[in-house]
Amino acid sequence: FPGVKIDNIKVDKLVTYFDDYLMDMTNAVFLTEEEMKKTRSDMKFMVRKRRLNHQPFKVTLDILSDKSADCIVRIFLGPKKDHMNRLIDINMNRFNFVELDTFMYKLTNGKNTIVRNSYDMHNLVRDRMMTRDLMKKVESITDMRDLLVKDLRNYHTGFPTRLLLPKGFVGGMDCLMYVIVTPLRLVNNVDINMLDMNRKDIVRDFRSTVLLDKMPLGFPFDRRIDVGKFFTPNMKF
């Protein structure tokens, strides 16, 4: 990407933990014929389970550009060392990098500072609404489309935000964050308005690279890397 350079990457401390989660299992409990006749259950059955989670974090990117241009920013996370505490060869390690976020951005001439919150990363969903709460909302709501867009958006296709980071180890885990900025190469006959997060006529988002960018999934880790030609100013570990 001529004229574009990633000057700095700043990441908050990544902390994972296990928390207790209560799941409403009332609908899964067998009821007698008399109980089935009632409009509401006399009891509420909750199941407690421990789940992986992480503290919210931010990724701050400082990008220098000598022109205004539309671009695609990709953020990856992968391990730095193997089980023997040795640095992993990039061609062996490229299969371990997971794409955390992909988004469009309009660069301006000069320094561009981008701040991405972990909850705002693309196609992530928070905890699903409990069935009991969903039924209460359905009874009182006037616009069903509003419910689908605000509360149920991406629940069939999104990735749980709490699983964004690997569990790691008690003493910590060495990881590498990789960021690359590439020019926006539009796919033919694609409506760019599909990425508008405020639209109310769609109830799910799609990965921007699938719809807009001609680059393959996992780019640039999708093929063998020539180390002598790989590193350019528009990328940074």
Describe the structure in your own words.
With 237 residues, the protein is α+β, with helices and mostly antiparallel strands. It has a single domain (4-16, 55-236), classed as Immunoglobulin-like, CATH 2.60.40.1520. It is 14% helix and 33% strand. The protein is built from six helices and eleven strands. Strands 6-5-10-11 form a four-stranded antiparallel β-sheet, with no helix packed on it. It has a three-stranded antiparallel β-sheet with strand order 1-4-7, with no helix packed on it. It has a two-stranded antiparallel sheet with strand order 2-3. The mean pLDDT is 84.
Summarize the structure.
The protein is an alpha+beta fold. It contains six helices and eleven strands. The strands form four sheets. A four-stranded antiparallel sheet has the order 6-5-10-11, with no helix packed on it.
